[in-house]
Design brief:
Elements (H helix, E strand, L loop, with lengths): L1 H19 L11 E6 L3 H8 L10 E4 L8 E5 L1 H13 L3 E6 L2 H11 L15 H14 L4 E8 L5 E7 L8 E7 L7 H16 L4 H9 L1 E5 L4 H9 L52 H12 L2 E10 L3 E4 L11 H19 L4 E4 H4 L7 H7 L5 E7 L14 H21 L4
Parallel strand pairs: 7-8, 7-9, 9-12, 10-11
Antiparallel strand pairs: 1-3, 1-4, 2-3, 5-6, 6-8, 10-12
Length: 424
């Protein structure tokens, strides 16, 4: 039976590729996003199995978890109509969040246009533009900023981070900030860029920023999954994974946030290569994941780690692989509460906080579990940025600056919490 399902899925994928063309720009005309709230465990299990049906072409935007916790799923029109009828038959609650995904994509694209002569913090930017900006910032703020080469992707792109901090003759403790691990989550790189700008411009003028940069080295990596991010601009806007081609698989890429060597391949990740949560053929099979992990492990004394995603407005700590709470949960969640309070004070945006598994869903092989479990970085966090589903991954560019402002306040509060609750 498993073999038959696999063959059906592969045939479905081959059909999709032959229709759209591997290099064509894929359109999502008529695709809908449904929000479904199953109330019993059997309904959760049933919905989880949709991913194995190639005819449905399911794309979970927020994966199935537990009864009572909503699921967001994108479907082509034919599948959406079918699913809506079945949900109605079984009295399973659902709403249509987005009635035509392509219209929202087109709207986001239109709003993002402009003739800015300088780098705009209220626009989404292509990978090359972001890389140029990092180098420009290093030149303009050469007293505190340097570009650092982290690793090279499968497709040969160099991943750079900006190291920001007062120079020291000794190795300072460090805090790592990353965005764009999932390609389609454009608000993540944009928010990391905005926060980087704030740290650079406020140094020497803002006491807290100055104290934090004098005490710690900060590493800002706006685009972790460079290959996937480029692909979302050039070919398929809703792409999530890397672009690695693994031997023996027709499907491309793996989920870079299920590929870390921390409970790799356990529940919360898929071993099916065509799944959006495919954990890869082995831990650290993805060059970008292995390269970032090696850098964090071998460079500096990292005391903080924050991995920014979208969407759902959540500030989360380990564990992702289990519902059990870690031994450091109390102080981890205390920082989360401080961050969420600071964030909400800017624009009134409401965030939840807690462990990954308990707040959103079980996810094994994640970055946060690895940095905490393997490197002992107590202050390790995964953050889901705006919004709560109205736009989902397609947040208009008008929301970049508000997201940046409130998230900067949260990161600033987090940094001060670490400064005041760590033995330096």
């Amino acid at each position: 039976m498993a073999t038959q399902v696999y063959i059906r899925v592969i045939l479905g994928i081959c059909t999709a590729l032959s229709v759209t063309g591997a290099d064509d720009y894929f359109r999502y005309d008529g695709y809908r996003v449904l929000r479904i709230t199953p109330e019993i465990k059997s309904h959760v299990s049933w919905i989880s199995e949709w991913e194995n049906d190639p005819d449905l072409q399911v794309d979970f935007w927020r994966a199935p978890s537990v009864p009572g916790r909503y699921i967001d799923v994108m479907l082509p029109l034919k599948s959406a109509n079918k699913i809506e009828r079945v949900l109605g038959t079984y009295n399973i609650s659902f709403d249509v969040l987005i009635s035509d995904v392509q219209k929202v994509i087109d709207d986001q694209t239109m709003r993002n246009q402009g003739n800015d002569t300088e780098f705009s913090f209220s626009k989404y930017h292509k990978f090359e533009e972001i890389q140029d900006w990092l180098h420009q910032m290093a030149r303009l703020h050469s007293d505190i900023a340097t570009v650092v080469e982290i690793t090279t992707t499968f497709e040969g792109r160099t991943i750079h981070a900006l190291k920001v901090g007062k120079p020291s003759t000794t190795t300072k403790q460090a805090i790592w900030i990353e965005g764009g691990i999932h390609a389609r989550e454009w608000i993540s790189p944009a928010t990391v860029i905005y926060m980087t700008k704030e740290f650079l411009q406020r140094y020497g003028h803002d006491k807290e920023v100055t104290d934090l940069l004098n005490t710690f080295d900060w590493y800002f990596l706006p685009v972790f999954n460079a290959d996937g991010y480029v692909y979302t601009w050039n070919a398929r806007r809703m792409w999530r994974k890397t672009r690695t081609r693994h031997k023996g698989s027709i499907c491309v890429g793996a989920d870079p946030n299920r590929n870390w060597d921390a409970h790799w391949g356990e529940p919360g990740a898929s071993h099916f290569p065509c799944s959006d949560t495919y954990c890869g053929p082995s831990a650290f099979s993805e060059p970008s994941v292995k390269g970032v992990a090696d850098f964090i492990q071998n460079h500096g004394r990292f005391i903080g780690f924050m991995d920014f995603h979208s969407y759902s407005q959540l500030w989360m700590s380990p564990w992702g692989y289990t519902y059990d709470l870690p031994k450091d949960f109390k102080i981890q969640d205390k920082l989360s509460a401080s961050a969420v309070e600071a964030l909400g004070s800017v624009h009134g945006t409401k965030y939840e906080h807690g462990t990954i598994a308990n707040v959103i869903y079980v996810a094994s092989g994640s970055s946060v579990d690895w940095t905490y479990d393997k490197l002992g970085i107590v202050y390790s966090y995964g953050v889901e940025l705006r919004d709560t589903g109205h736009y989902g991954f397609l947040l208009p560019s008008e929301e970049i600056v508000p997201s940046g402002e409130e998230t900067f306040a949260a990161v600033l509060a987090s940094g001060m919490f670490i400064l005041n609750n760590s033995f330096l």
